[in-house]
Amino acid sequence: MPSKPRRGWRRTVLCIPMRKDDALLDRSSPFVRKYDRFGEEIALLQNFAAQAVIAMENARLLGQLRQRTEEIAGWNRELEARVAAQLGEIEARQIAPLPRAAAG
Q: Does residue 30 sit within a domain?
């Protein structure tokens, strides 16, 4: 149960920045029923924020990887179609009779 606020104290609010390098990605503002100053919770929440940033970055990279994989798969399908068409042309030329030289 939270302790009663002391005279002159206000409810404590804590915002933890979620940063990647120097960029601010988001912030976390956990709701904590506490009328006192934060202690060990700050380090715990900072660690949580760091892990959340890693998860966000992993999700972004996974999305990019999936997009790139689909792009490369499309190129591969195009190349397979071209190779099949060229192979068909080569096989057709091998079967076709050679033109005879005109009698002169």
A: yes
Count the domains in the chain.
Answer: 1
Tell how strand 23-28 and strand 16-20 pair up. Answer: antiparallel
Q: List pLDDT tens digits, range 3-39.
A: 555 555 556 666 777 777 777 777 666 655 555 566 6
What confidence category does residue 68 fall into, taking pLDDT thresholds of 50, 70 and 90? very high
Q: Which helix (H) or strand (E) element contains residue 93?
A: helix 40-95
Q: What is the pLDDT of residues 79-97, one digit of tens each?
A: 999 999 999 888 888 876 6
Number of other residues whose CB lies within 10 A of the CB of residue 35: 14
Question: Tokens standing for 46?
Answer: 């900072």
Closest CA to 39 of 10, 58, 12, 18: 12
Alpha-carbon 88 to chain mean position = 41
For residue 84, what are the domain limits? Answer: 16-94
Radius of gyration of the chain (CA): 33
